[in-house]
Give the backbone structure.
Amino acid sequence: MSALLDRMFTWAGWLAGLSMIATLAAVMASIFGRLLHFDVPGADAYAGYCMAASAFLALAHTLRRGEHIRVTLILNHLGVKARHALEIFCHGAALFLSGALAWYSLRLVWQSWQFHDISTGLDATPLWIPQIGMAAGTVLFFLAFAQDLLDLLRGKSLPEVREGGEPAHIE
């Protein structure tokens, strides 16, 4: 199950990268449209949709690779058992909060679809479509925290803890 989740997180990371490229494409289309005197309706809205999808889809991938910023001021001064207990507590709280975020994100997509919400811009995009990226990203983030918490409860170390308590690849 862990390998399947990690593959899903990796695919979400790739989708986040593609969303960043789509953001660039939308912004460039808007810029060149202005320079060449043609209109690209909704380009700014689509850039925003892609940027939001990119941010949310990258959350789980980044978490599982130990790249989220951690404040280790307290953790570094604790013993092994106290540190492990605090890690479990923090991951439990993060699981709860990410679960609430995922729930409300999914609910937002459902309500937008149910009420036929559309964007107020010229593009008139049904809002549930761009909201899918946010909902999928928050659900994967919840699953990543669940996997981390299970790893902690099984006694495994997390990626960000392996290198002395600092995030795995800070530079």
